[in-house]
Amino acid sequence: MDTPIAAFADKLPLSLSLPPRPHIDFPWPSACAPNVEQIESTMLDWAKLHGLFLNEGHRRHAVQACLAWLAARCYPHAERRLLQVLANYIACLFLTDDILVDHIHGVSASTVPPLAAILDAVDFNRLGEHPAYGESAWLDVCQQLRQLLQPEHFERFANGIRLWATAAGLQILVHLNGAPPTMQTYISIRRYIGGMPSTLALIDPANAAPLSAAVHCRPDVQQLDLHINNIVCWSNDVHSLNAEIRQPGHFWSMVTVYAAQDGSLQSAVNRTVARIEGEIDQFLTLAATIEQSADLSLCTYIAGTKDWIRGYLDWVEHDTQRYSPPCMEDA
Questions:
Q1: Which of 63, 201, 225, 230 has CB 3.0 to 4.6 Å from 156, enough for a Cys bridge?
Q2: Which residues of 100-132 are buried (b: 16+ CB within 10 A; e: fewer)?
Q3: What contacts 24+ positions apart, CB below 8 Å, involve 278-281?
Q4: Residues 87, 88, 90, 91, CA torsion sign
Q5: How far apart are CA 265 and CA 270, in angstroms?
Q6: Pair 40, 60: CB distance under 8 Å
Q7: What is the per-residue pLDDT across 120-161, written as a single tens digit (0 to 9) for each?
Q8: Cα torsion 199, 202, 206, 210: sign
């Protein structure tokens, strides 16, 4: 029998039986860049150099996350130097999001400045007088990408980071409020807090076929990006449920917002998976329509979006332990 979900994550009983993780199928083949072990090792050294690990336990969690594998699977055709920067970027995004957004337990004078510092690093290409957590890492990522991308394509990436940092403030307010957000509010924030606009902006450069501004801004291409964003973010809500449901900063997801409505986690998972499957169908239909008249760069971009979606799933199912249920000492 389904257990009604509590209003707050820390009130959920430790004995609560959670639904098994469903398999969400993305019906196209996998790919992975070579030399991922070396990329991972270099990324971990880079993260340590920039102070992204708070302690040895935090570093071990990052190792278990296998973040370079996510980059290698999602950008399997990227040139080696660019792929390293993409792996560093993904590590930077995940680690700073964990520390600055997801694990916020109260607002203080130290809550906002680190996020504002990241915006300054992106916008002004320099560090502040007293660098905050993650600031130097973000600056390095941006400086490397400025060298490797055309200015227009770097700006798309940078704008995605601005949207992520802005949405972070909204998510912190939602978590502090305690009450479940409406589904529309949740979906609006999730569209940006997942960091997908910046990751999508890197697909076409990673495949050596940058989209022109005219093509990138087409309504059908923007709609395609929205489907991809929804597929990945909502799938992550399902995949991360068992690991994050009792962590206060992680609590609200599409699954838990649905569960707050009717008290059934299983029903909430089912409804979320149904929405994801609907997005996959719409993505495939729209992609097929676009491809009928697309040039090589746009066809390459669509192939790259499939690599990203499939790469995320393969990373969850084969590589990362990030979404494994926490050990009792870590709970």
A1: 201
A2: bbbebeeeeeeeeebbebbbbbbeeeeeeeebb
A3: 279/227, 279/230, 279/231, 279/234, 280/26, 280/227, 280/231
A4: positive
A5: 9
A6: no
A7: 999 999 999 999 999 999 999 999 999 999 999 999 999 999
A8: positive
